[in-house]
Amino acid sequence: MTLLRSWREGYALPLATVLLVLLVIWYAAAVWLNAPQVISIAFSDKPDWTLRELVDATWSMERPVLPAPHQVAIELYESVFEQEITSRRSLAYHTLVTASSTVLGFALGIVLGVLLAVGIVHVRTLDRSLLPWIIASQTIPILAIAPMIIVVLGNAGFTGLLPKAIISMYLCFFPVAIGMIKGLRSPDPLQLDLMRTYSASPAQVFWKLRSPASVPFLFASLKVAIGISLVGAIVGELPTGGQEGIGARLLSGSYYGQTVQIWAALVMAALLGMVLVALVGLAERLTLQRMGGRP
């Protein structure tokens, strides 16, 4: 209750204000972008149209350039609550598919990033030889490498969830590795000297000093990594031509000019990202409390 009350007092008003401003800008932009199409098509034989009629028409187009917020909200409600969750017409179904790829890729990225960080911190050769390649790997555009990963894994017999998870892992392991390296190297030299004074083994130094010190750095990087993992999962759905996932929903909307469907999928992706980041934040808070940190 105390946490909820502090959130309401500290974040509710600023969040509501920003949301209101964004809605006003969105509605105004919908009128501005949709007006030329409405005037040239709907009002071509009606020269005495009024501003109110123009605004109403721009906010109710079937295939607008920019849909109004209420159109996106209606599409979200109909595709989430009025469809069976097992139906491919359900946006909730596509969201679950994307979330599965995201979580699997995120888990694989954590494992890979942590292992690389431990090796780089403890093996000087890896620090000098491997770290530059890790950094260079992130300069490759994911849109270029994603189809290659899909084709290679497909020829090897791996289809469905795994290729998309691999793409997510490729994107999200980097912040995990960098954050973990920073965290493992964060203990003060005096603390390391004290452990040596106690004749601590490298394993004891790692588990009793380096590992606990790296936890805040790790969770900070995980919040970034989970968002990037979601992007990777959606990008991985684009070149496959599949029928499942938010990426497939975006593709089908672009094929048939369903801009309202595209925006509904984008909003759902943003909501999914917010939920995933919030879950990582909750895990961070619980972990730090168990380690004796402040609640």
Layout of strands and helices, then pairs:
Layout: H1 2-42, H2 51-58, H3 69-81, H4 91-122, H5 124-129, H6 131-137, H7 142-155, H8 161-184, H9 189-197, H10 202-237, H11 246-255, H12 259-290
Overview of this protein structure:
The chain is mainly α. Helices cover 79% and strands 0% of the residues. It has helices at 2-42, 51-58, 69-81, 91-122, 124-129, 131-137, 142-155, 161-184, 189-197, 202-237, 246-255, 259-290.
Give a summary of the structure in a few sentences.
The protein has 295 residues and is mainly alpha-helical.
Low-confidence stretches: none
Mean pLDDT across the residues is 86
Describe the main β-sheet briefly: none
User: How many DSSP helices?
Assistant: 12
> What coarse outline follows from CA principal-axis ratios?
elongated
What Rg is obtained from the alpha carbons, in whole angstroms? 24 Å
CA(first)-CA(last) distance? 13 Å
Helix amount: over 70%
User: What structural class is derived from the secondary structure elements?
Assistant: mainly alpha
Amount of beta strand: under 5%
Q: Could you state the order of secondary-structure elements as H and E?
A: HHHHHHHHHHHH
Strand elements, count: 0
